[in-house]
Amino acid sequence: MSSSEEEAEFDGGEGEEEEEEGEEEEEEEEEEEEEDDDEEDEPLTSLRKRKRETVNYQVDAGSNDDDDDDEHEESEEEEDDVPLASLKKKPSSKESSKSSSSSSKKKTTTSKKKAKPAPKSPTKATPSKSGDYSSSSAALYESGCKKGMLIQKLLCRWWYAIEWPVKSELPKSPPDKFDKLDGFEGVYVCTSGDKVGKILDLRPKEQCPSFQNFAKKSSKELKDLLLRALEEQKKALVEADGEGTPTEKEIKEDVKLVKRIKPEEADKEASKVLKAAKLKLV
After folding, report:
1. What ranges in the chain are assigned the alpha helix state H?
2. Which residue, 63, 134, 177, 255, is the most exposed by fewest CB within 10 angstroms?
3. Does the N-terminal peptide bond of residue 165 adopt cis geometry, omega within 30 degrees of 0?
């Protein structure tokens, strides 16, 4: 065999070997690509498991782990497996609590607006039936006696019907070392000497507009005085504020009420009330 033929055979052998090596390299590259594709197709949870297994293995070789870490990891894995769509659909607990609280507040406010307080019925003073009174004035007032009503209404406006004190009966000048007390006819105050500040009342007590003095009068006299006082009060009111005021209407109602009272019956009623209470007018 010639040298040229040997070289050709040698070159051909080398070429075959190179082709075989190239094919092997291609096969290895394809296997590596397939492995990479398989790894890419694996879910994240499996990859995390692999990493955790290796870490746990290394740690177990040196020390013992707590069970709490495993439970925490499992809960994280379960959270990873939950799809994002379901997480978006679930409302947060805070939002639900806020909505429930706001709805409850709205309900309470609407219920408060709808609920209106019931109108209170006017309380009327009922006459006492026990007959246990501390004084004669309490007996005639609280029993609803007509004479007691006449006395009570007359005491509220006596100055429209009675002059007291009578100016002609008062001293023309104040006593020595005394001055007039403004607003009180017949009353004086000491301004010098040892009795400075002392009050001197020269008004006649027998004519004083009090319960005791009025109770001694008959119901007829009380009725006449009260009607006179009501008429004078109405005149003064109209001059000051004009007609049609609420007070004028009240006065007119009182006039109608007083005119219906029968004096004789009112006197008998008053005597019965005082007798039952074992009280006397002093």
Report:
1. 3-41, 44-62, 67-81, 84-89, 93-114, 136-142, 146-155, 211-215, 219-241, 246-259, 263-276
2. 63
3. yes
In the block, residue with structure tokens 């177990």:
60
CA 88 to chain centre: 43
| Interstrand relation of 187-190 and 199-201 (parallel, antiparallel or unpaired) | antiparallel
Please state, in angstroms and rounded to a whole number, the distance separating the CA atoms of residues 139 and 144.
Answer: 9
Q: Are the CB atoms for 105 and 112 separated by under 8 Å?
A: no
Q: Assess contact for 164 and 207: CB atoms under 8 A.
A: yes
Which residues are registered as beta bridge partners of 4?
A: none
Q: Can you give the pTM of this predicted structure?
A: 0.54
Using pLDDT thresholds of 50, 70 and 90, give the confidence band for residue 18.
low
Please provide residue 227's backbone torsions phi and psi, each rounded to the nearest 5 degrees: -65, -40
Three-state DSSP class for residue 190: strand
